[in-house]
Design goal:
With 352 residues, the protein is mainly alpha-helical. The protein contains 18 helices and four strands. Keywords: Membrane, Transmembrane, Transmembrane helix.
Length: 352
C-alpha cells in the first residue's frame, strides 16, 4: 500500500511517496549503511568537482583553450547538478553548511538561494506544470498566450525544439534571471538585494582571480558557462508534461551512464519527485528495484535516452504552449479536487 511522509531522514524537501511499506523499509535499511550515513559519494563528488574546476583554471595555459574549455564546461554543468543535491539536504542536515558548499558561482548565472527557493516550490507536485505556480514550468495559461505577440509565440515554439531549448532556451532563462534581479532592486527587496550583491561580489572575485590565469570574464561567460547551462537543458528538455495524474507528469529517462553521472541520476525524475530526499546515488538502485511499478505509475512516460529526444524533437517542437487544463484558477481547483478523488480511489484499490 502506498504511503506518504512529510520528511525523510530529516531532509527539508517536501513529501515522500513510497510505493509500499516494503520500499520504505528498504530505503530505511539502505540509509543505515555507513556509506549512506556518512554521505561519502556526495563528499567525494564535492572534492572532485571543486578540485577539478580550480585545477583546470590554474593549469589553463598548459591544458590549452580547447581542452580547458571542455573540462570546465563539464565541471560547471556537474556543479549545477551538485547544487541541486545540496538543495535537497545533502551531504549534511544543516542548511547553512550545504548553502556554503553551493554558493560559489562557478556556473555564473543563478545565486544558490535563488535556485533553492525556486526549486523547492517546484517540488509541490500538485502544482507541477501549473503555469502560475510551478517556477520551472514551460506552459502558459490561455489568458497569457492570448496577449503574446506573434513574434514571441514563434520564439516559444522554437525554444520547444531540442536545438532551440539548448540555445535560445538558455538565452530566455538568462534574460528572466536578469529581470528577477532588476525587479528585486526596484522593489527594494532587502533579502533579495543582499543575495544578488553577494552573488555579484563573489562572481567579480572569481573573474578577477581567473583573469590572472588568462581566462577573461567574457571568455568564461560565452565559451564555458553558456554551454554548461545548455547541457543542463538537455536533462530538463521534456522532464515534465501536462497530465491529470500528477505522478505521470515526471519522466523516467533510462539514459547511458555518462549522462547519469553528469546529472546525478535525475534522469529518473519521477523517483526523485516521489522521494526528493533520496540521495543521488540511491535513485538508480531504487528505480531498478521497482522498475515496473514506476513505469506504471508514470503512465509509461519513459524514454530510452536523451538521443531519443534529439531524434524526435531536434527541429520539431514539443506541444508545450497553452496548458490543457489549467486555463483558470477556478478550473485548477476543480481539477485538483478530481485528482484527490482519483488518488484516493487508487490507494484504496491497492490496499485491498
Amino acid at each position: 500500500m502506498p504511503t506518504a511522509d512529510v520528511k525523510f531522514n530529516y531532509r527539508e524537501t517536501g513529501n515522500a511517496y513510497y510505493l509500499s511499506e516494503q520500499q520504505r523499509a528498504r530505503i530505511k535499511q539502505l540509509s543505515r549503511s555507513w556509506v549512506w550515513r556518512l554521505e561519502l559519494p556526495t563528499w567525494a563528488l564535492i572534492g572532485v568537482i571543486y578540485t577539478g574546476w580550480f585545477t583546470c583554471v590554474i593549469y589553463w595555459q598548459q591544458l590549452g583553450a580547447v581542452m580547458g574549455s571542455v573540462l570546465l564546461i563539464l565541471l560547471s554543468a556537474w556543479y549545477m547538478s551538485l547544487q541541486h543535491e545540496l538543495i535537497h539536504g545533502h551531504p549534511t542536515r544543516w542548511r547553512w553548511v550545504n548553502q556554503l558548499l553551493g554558493t560559489l558561482p562557478l556556473a555564473v548565472w543563478y545565486p544558490y538561494i535563488f535556485y533553492r527557493d525556486s526549486h523547492i516550490q517546484h517540488h509541490r507536485d500538485e502544482n507541477l506544470t501549473h503555469p502560475e505556480k510551478d517556477p520551472e514550468c514551460y506552459y502558459y495559461t490561455a489568458e497569457q498566450w492570448l496577449y503574446f505577440t506573434p513574434l514571441f509565440k514563434i520564439i516559444v515554439r522554437v525554444s520547444n525544439t531540442f536545438i532551440g531549448r539548448v540555445t535560445l532556451g538558455v538565452v530566455l532563462d538568462i534574460i528572466d534571471t536578469i529581470r528577477c534581479a532588476i525587479r528585486a532592486f526596484i522593489a527594494g527587496n532587502r533579502p533579495a538585494i543582499i543575495m544578488w550583491l553577494t552573488h555579484f561580489g563573489l562572481l567579480g572575485l572569481l573573474f578577477h582571480w581567473m583573469a590572472g590565469y588568462g581566462i577573461s570574464a567574457i571568455l568564461y561567460i560565452l565559451v564555458i558557462s553558456f554551454p554548461a547551462l545548455s547541457l543542463t537543458k538537455v536533462r530538463s528538455f521534456f522532464e515534465h508534461r501536462a497530465a491529470e495524474n500528477s505522478a505521470a507528469r515526471s519522466t523516467l529517462n533510462e539514459a547511458a551512464w555518462p549522462w547519469r553521472l553528469l546529472f546525478l541520476n535525475l534522469n529518473y525524475h519521477l523517483v526523485h519527485h516521489d522521494l526528493p530526499a533520496l540521495p543521488w546515488y540511491g535513485l538508480r538502485q531504487i528505480y531498478l528495484e521497482n522498475r515496473v511499478q514506476y513505469q506504471q505509475r508514470s503512465e509509461q512516460f519513459v524514454v530510452s535516452g536523451y538521443t531519443q529526444w534529439f531524434e524526435a524533437f531536434a527541429f520539431t517542437a514539443l506541444e508545450i504552449e497553452i496548458h490543457p487544463f489549467y486555463d483558470s484558477e477556478k478550473k485548477t481547483l476543480s481539477e485538483q479536487a478530481r485528482h484527490d478523488v482519483i488518488d484516493g480511489a487508487d490507494r484504496h484499490s491497492e490496499s485491498v
